[in-house]
Amino acid sequence: MLPALKRKAGEALLVAADVAGIVASLAGASIVAFLGKVMLAVVLFAVALGFCLRLSARRKVKFAAPHPYPAWTRPASALLAFVEVALLVEATNLPVRFIQPGFEPWHWALVVAAFVVAYSLHMRLFRALVGQKNVATQP
């Protein structure tokens, strides 16, 4: 009787372990599905929040009045940038003419890039210099 009882208890324990495994596997799949949906909701919320913050930032910038700078700053920046790039090209002997030996068309890309950088730096400099002086306060 005792060996039969041990065998039946062992079989019952194995059946209970199988049932527990099946329940755990089904519960694991539903838990993973639930967590996946939660993570998807978090990601979509973050995207929507970023979108709303971007739109609200655009509105604030749109209504801000730009600081008026004198009209001479752009031509002066362009002229100074042109002179600097011309001096740089001559100082480095960069071949930019078709008849010069060693000419490559991409040399002009370097010249244009140097002009853009110099122009933007001069504009920043002029804006900083003009921004420090309060020309005249409005009544």
Can you tell me the residue ranges where pLDDT is under 50 for at least 5 consecutive residues?
none
In quaternary terms, these chains amount to single chain
Strand content: under 5%
Biggest beta sheet summary = none
Radius of gyration, CA atoms, in whole angstroms: 37 Å
- Class computed from helices, strands and strand pairing: mainly alpha
Counting DSSP H or I runs of 4 or more residues, the number of helices is: 3
Q: What is the average per-residue confidence, as pLDDT, rounded to a whole number? A: 82
Work out the helicity level. over 70%
Element-by-element helix/strand order: HHH
Shape summary:
elongated
Q: What gap, in angstroms, lies between the N and C termini?
A: 110 Å
Count of strand segments: 0
Supply the key terms.
139 residues; 3 helices; 0% strand; elongated
